[in-house]
Amino acid sequence: MVDSEMSNTIELRSSIAAKKFGRYLLLAVLALLLVLACLGLGVLTLKDVVEQVTAMEAEQPLSRFEVFNEAIDKVEKDVAEQYAQHTQKMEAGTILEMNVKFNTIYNMAHENEQAFTRLIKRFQSGMYQLASRTRGSGEWFDYYKKDVESLHERSVSRSSKLIRYTKHNAASNEQR
């Protein structure tokens, strides 16, 4: 009976070992297939890279002259498109509407600049009157007088530039 129990345990152990071996063999085959698939994918990728590098080497690099000519052609094309758009606006008359709107805004800016100039002059006058009524205030008046005069001069300069532009724009419109 001891022999039969031993043979049962040996048979049982053998069958367990055979099952484990079968599982491990299956896992090894699957792992081998996975490694072969990765290797095949790597070979295909390497082939594509080699083809791309070969194609890049076969292409002749563009000379600076050709690159410059391409850039000039692009600019000429863009200018032609812009000119066509401008001509279309001129023919439709919409550009004149924009010019009228621009002149309106420009005139408003000129009026605002003149109002600012008057404000600065009145501020300076009020500052002088206040300084003359307060003892010892001549120092701060002289200090701030330079800043206020600078503001006034810049305002007058902007106003005169606006006037010159308006006159120039009116003269160029009359010539057309």
Quick take:
The chain is 93% helix and 0% strand. It contains four helices and no strands. The model has no long low-confidence stretch (mean pLDDT 80).
Care to count the β-strands?
A: 0
* Elements, N to C (H/E): HHHH
How much of the sequence lies in strands comes to under 5%
- Provide the helix percentage: over 70%
Radius of gyration: 45 Å
Number of individual domains: 3
Instruction: Count the DSSP helices.
Output: 4
First-residue to last-residue Cα separation? 128 Å
Q: What report would you give on this structure?
A:
This protein is mainly alpha-helical. It folds into three domains: 1-59; 62-92; 93-176. The protein has helices at 2-58, 64-92, 94-133, 138-175. Helix 3 packs antiparallel against helix 4 (138-175). It is elongated, with a radius of gyration of 45 Å. The model has no long low-confidence stretch (mean pLDDT 80).
